[in-house]
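Figure S7 source data.
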Amino acid sequence: MAYGGAGPVGGSGSASTIKQVKLERESELRIEVGNDAPLRLRLLNGTAEIFGTELPPEIWLNFPPRLKFAVFTWYGATIEMDGATETDYTADETPMVSYVNVHAVLDGRRSRAKASSPDDSGSSQGPRVIVVGPTDSGKSTLSRMLLSWAAKQGWKPTFVDLDIGQGSITIPGCIAATPIEMPIDPVEGIPLEMPLVYYYGHATPSNNVELYKVLVKELAGMIERQFTGNAESRASGMVINTMGWIEGVGYDLLLHAIRTFKANVVLVLGQEKLCSMLKDVLKSEPKVDVVKLQRSGGVVSRNAKVRQKARSYRIREYFYGLSNDLSPHSNIANFSDLFVYRVGGGPQAPRSALPIGAEPAADPTRVVPVNINRDLLHLVLAVSFAKEPDEIISSNVAGFIYVTDVDIQRKKITYLAPSAGELPSKYLIMGSLTWLET
Ligand SMILES: Nc1ncnc2c1ncn2[C@@H]1O[C@H](COP(=O)(O)OP(=O)(O)OP(=O)(O)O)[C@@H](O)[C@H]1O
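Tokens for the predicted adenosine-5'-triphosphate complex:
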């Protein structure tokens, strides 16, 4: 956690911005940190948690600008805050009891899975939970709570994030998974030791729906293999966060994810219609429970501009760290040292526009070599673990680089990488994800 000093802040003068808030049992303090300065906060007495992670007593925690969160208490607490907020208010109506009840059911299933024979692949499998719902229904937040509560109990659930727009494991444009071994830090977020990451390269699945599906399948297959050799992870199960796109193709992609990951608990946040549609189609798959849950009134809505900004901050955070604590390296390579590929060949003609029997010319999962030119400027490229170009789609990625200059005359490319030295592979994947360093 980002701990501050333990001492008091603000002098004895009137400039002090310290404020104390007393929270009654089962209520929460909802906070949006101001745009310009961080906020310090500590638990003075009682017990409280932030999205499932308990606060340590009395220690000041630093929350960066713009962070939106809630401090919830089951039995009552006093909180002290120091700094400016965009908003802060207390709410005593929350869906937390229903959320923790879900956790209790999942916990029971994990214990049963652990107790059963590892040879029985059906019953030794813990719950595979998928969280679905419209944008800004609190999917990521609920996923985080379920993971943190499970980790607090000693489980090691796998977090799978299929949200390429606002995912919380790594930069946008990716689908990823990582085991959660400790309650998630309310400031630092998901630990990034060894996430399993596949690069899709765009912030919306409509750019290449086929590719999105193929990558979801790759990720699911990889986790399945990991579960086979690890009874503890298998019993702990997984929590899958999804995108907020729930209509049309978005709905098809949800069903595809539910089936590909063999989810057996579908949590639907705040949408009656989606819940009944899913119940209807999944009723022939008897082992799937579809559960409707209330959306929290605290979830903050974000418009397209705010989402775009959040994506940009995520990329910045990847290279520079949450509080500028990382030092990325600027490197120069020859054009001939790097091999850049994109997946999918240009716009695809609709099947209906083609003669009967003819296949569309552009295969959405074709790996196409890209000439290095100034079009690469400001793109974020993934460094693939592939050993051959035809392994690019089926390979996860080691990390990302950001192209800062392309010198056509000298045939040199300048890029920012998280560390110095050679890249772990010369195969790079491009999409449409750009970033303007500010
Ligand atoms: N109870 C709460 N109080 C204050 N802020 C909250 C609360 N619950 C969620 N938030 C904040 O609201 C924002 C949106 O929530 P969240 O990311 O969970 O929604 P989502 O449904 O996953 O969004 P998306 O559609 O982008 O995937 C986040 O910044 C989150 O921290």
